[in-house]
Design goal:
Layout (H helix, E strand, L loop, with lengths): L2 E3 L2 E7 L3 H18 L4 E5 L2 E6 L10 H18 L2
Antiparallel strand pairs: 1-2, 2-4, 3-4
Helix pairs in contact: 1-2
The chain binds ligand H2B.
Protein name: 4a-hydroxytetrahydrobiopterin dehydratase
InterPro entries: PCD_sf, Pterin_deHydtase
EC number: 4.2.1.96
Amino acid sequence: MWIEEENKLKRNLTFKDFKQAMAFMNTVADIAEEMDHHPWWSNVYNKITIELTTHDAGNTITDRDHKLARQIDVIYDSMKSE
Ligand SMILES: C[C@H](O)[C@H](O)[C@H]1CNC2=NC(N)=NC(=O)C2=N1
């Protein structure tokens, strides 16, 4: 699950394969645009590292980060069962 470190929420996710990781990123991208709140993330094959912090608040953790984190958990949990 998420850890709080260096004023960021951090989580590492693993997927079935690269395609599923990309599908996840595209789904989250839509949510991030709707929320106008965007992750810092990196992908290597079926693994994604995500860090959430709020730049507008001086790179601290705000409710916007927790809200996006919850949305990310919902999307990830829905894909794991695929
Ligand atoms: C101009 C734009 O609305 C702001 O820069 C938004 C965009 N996405 C953002 N994402 C994150 N993580 N933090 C922000 O403060 C933020 N601000």
